[in-house]
Specification:
Blueprint lengths: L22 H7 L3 H4 L5 H21 L1 E6 L4 H6 L3 E3 L1 H10 L4 E5 L2 H10 L4 E3 L15 H10 L5 E4 L4 H5 L3 E3 L4 H11 L4 E5 L2 H8 L5 E5 L11 H10 L4 E4 L5 H6 L2 E2 L2 H11 L3 E5 L2 H10 L4 E3 L13 H10 L8 H16 L18 E3 L3
Parallel strand pairs: 1-2, 1-3, 3-4, 5-6, 5-7, 7-8, 8-13, 9-10, 9-11, 11-12
Bound molecules: iron/sulfur cluster.
The site of iron/sulfur cluster has 12 residues, from loops.
Length: 372
């Protein structure tokens, strides 16, 4: 499992950092440039285009697909990604294709989710160090100890978690359906308390919208927890009339200042459906670039935080993964079977609410378990 602090786990840095921009490359990529021309200057494009051409050729030869998360840089998201979206959408799309190889342009827990949903396919992660502070905050052993401490309380786990943790989970959730999943779990397990892991801020934001008692964990996304309510007030002062959309991994006081809170898909759909004049997305930087490219009539205010783990994935590393078939994601079949149950239970639920709105009451979280 990767460590979010980024030590070298034996990952090979790519030795291909330059490929020439030839007439052949130009012919293969000219049709793609208009997709990203608003955010990538022509000179920079000439460095990306040879890799894009080589990756798209190799994908065809090897029957591979690339799953590109919303936080990937625009040249990856728009020019080599076959499916784009949040981690669960990506894995579900991959399961439907007849591709034999999946390259995960995202972080390690996302590649694990793809392997859980597509165990018969080869799943590659281009850089083993693409971890996640949230997923790294808790282990399967931690969950087993929590279950002993709160017997009878169902375990709801955010999909931003490792396969080991999902295997100890009753049902997974995303940031779009977390409230519904918590209420479903409490009803199904006849419980008044739910263990909601591992994101303490998402837990608080969910607790504000349900009467179920929630026990959580001291995990956090290092990108979203850095935003503050003061940041939002400053953005509004400098940009009168701006619409503020925030991800529910942000602290509750940030969401309280926002106009809308929703997952990456929820924010993207909000912009597409409402076409606000000015908008700011309180989330990872590349998300704004990618949503801006799809909504040229909307002006984006751009304060954002970069995810260092997502940014480990680059075109040269994706090319190398396809050439060398490294790094394969392997998970114990028993863990896959158990984790699959938790994901399938969530997928089987009808979705009622696609987004979270700002709070009408203060969140009440029963406990945060930094240690068990
Ligand atoms: S943005 Fe946050 S939750 Fe997503 S991979 Fe980066 S650290 Fe993890």
């Amino acid at each position: 499992m990767p460590d979010s602090s980024g030590p070298d786990f034996g990952n090979h840095e790519t030795d291909i950092n330059y490929l020439p921009y030839t007439d052949e490359v130009k012919a293969k990529t000219d049709h793609l440039y208009p997709k990203v021309a608003n955010v990538i200057p022509e000179l920079e494009w000439r460095a990306h285009a040879p890799f894009i051409a080589a990756i798209n050729d190799l994908k065809k030869q090897k029957n591979a697909v690339i799953l590109a998360h919303n936080y990937m840089t625009p040249e990856i998201f728009n020019c080599v990604g076959d499916f784009a979206g949040d981690s669960l959408q990506l894995a579900k799309e991959a399961a439907r294709t007849d591709a034999e190889i999946i390259v995960q342009a995202g972080v390690h827990f996302m590649a694990e989710t793809s392997k859980i949903l597509c165990p018969e396919k080869t799943v590659l992660i281009p850089d083993l160090r693409a971890g996640c502070s949230l997923a790294a905050s808790i282990t399967g052993e931690d969950v087993r100890l929590l279950k002993q401490k709160y017997p009878g309380a169902p375990v709801v786990t955010y999909v931003n978690s490792t396969a080991d943790v999902k295997a100890e989970t009753d049902i997974c959730c995303t940031s779009s359906n977390a409230v519904e999943v918590v209420e479903y779990a409490a009803k199904e397990f006849n419980a008044d308390t739910v263990l909601f892991l591992p994101d303490q801020y998402l837990a608080k934001n969910v607790a504000a919208m349900t009467d179920i008692k929630i026990v959580t964990w001291a995990g956090a996304c290092e990108v979203h927890e850095r935003f503050s309510a003061e940041d939002i007030r400053e953005i509004r002062e400098g940009n009168p009339g701006v619409i503020v959309l925030a991800h529910p991994e942000c602290p509750p006081d940030v969401l309280a200042e926002a106009d809308f809170a929703g997952s990456t898909s929820g924010m993207s759909n909000y912009v597409k459906d409402n076409q606000p004049d000015h908008v700011v997305l309180i989330t990872e930087c590349s998300m704004s670039d990618n949503v801006a490219l799809q909504n040229p009539g909307v002006n984006f205010v751009r304060p954002c935080n970069l995810c260092p783990h997502m940014k480990r994935i680059s075109l040269p590393k994706i090319l190398r993964a396809l050439q060398t078939m490294e790094h394969k994601v392997e998970i114990d079949p028993e863990i896959i079977d158990k984790a699959r149950v938790a994901i399938d239970r969530m997928i089987a639920l009808p979705l009622v609410r696609q987004s979270m709105y700002t709070h009408e009451r203060a969140p009440e979280v029963a406990a945060i378990e930094a240690r068990v």
